[in-house]
Amino acid sequence: MGTEEVKCLIIGSGPAGYTAAIYASRAGLSPVVYEGMQRGGQLTTTTLVENFPGYPDGVDANKLMGDMRSQAERLGADIRRGEVTKVDFSKRPFAIEIDGETEILAYSVIIATGATARYLGLPSEEKFKGMGVSACAVCDGFFYRGKDVAVVGGGDTACEEATYLASLCKKVYMIVRRNVLRASETMQQRVFDTPNIEILWECNTQEIVGDNMGVTGVKLLHRDGQIVEKRIDGFFLAIGHHPNTEVFTKWVDVDGEGYIVTEDKSSKTNIDGVFAAGDVQDTSYRQAITAAAGGCRAAIDAERFLAENR
Q1: What is the dihedral of CA 244, 250, 255, 257, to 10 degrees?
Q2: Could you say which of 54, 146, 169, 235 has the lowest number of CB atoms within 10 Å?
Q3: Does domain 119-237 have CATH number 3.50.50.60?
């Protein structure tokens, strides 16, 4: 196994990882970035991004991430394909194994591996991803202004997404497996008080229907065996996210959902010299712009750490 020493290792390649690489490069840290399985991160599963500052007409998600990547490379970041398979944060330099073949000894580490939206696992869901199937109402809700949409889920996130969409859309169906919502009383009341939200109780999604243009409807199976069909233009998942932290949890503190816990408003973890940025530690916002801000913080925190521990 080959071994290499680096000042700053960045794990992940979404807005947080690439922004961390930009700032770390300009600080002279010569960062090495391993992009993981999904170059550009979760954002590349969507199409047009309209809420990232600086793009008045919106920007294709893959172009946005490609531009960030190019900027980081131009400034000196060493960006590589590869996935972290093992880490040892018990001593410095930290030991990180890549693809079971390469060992990186890093004096600082920025974890920016993101979180993956939970999906139902339907073939039709996969077929229409980016064509009416979305896991982010804030990201994609604008495209369904004045249209009918459905939201799957019964927790706080689902209620929040449904009420947000209700401010844009003509009709919002909430598809709920049980006969009650799991959300807090406050969030439930917001849903009940919103006239254009209709809850479809005790229903499971059987199939998302569509054509070459995208989603056109959804087939639901009611608990009593009846098939319920609704015409919709957008289908939103709100059944949670799964942070990509499994390889780190032996060393880094995580919360009950697996998100990395950071210190106050910084990117610092419980391990000195290990930082976290973006959706891997953000349970509230999960936006490209907040992930980028987190990457900036992490690079600055890493620079200060290395300066104090030369």
Answers
A1: 40
A2: 54
A3: yes
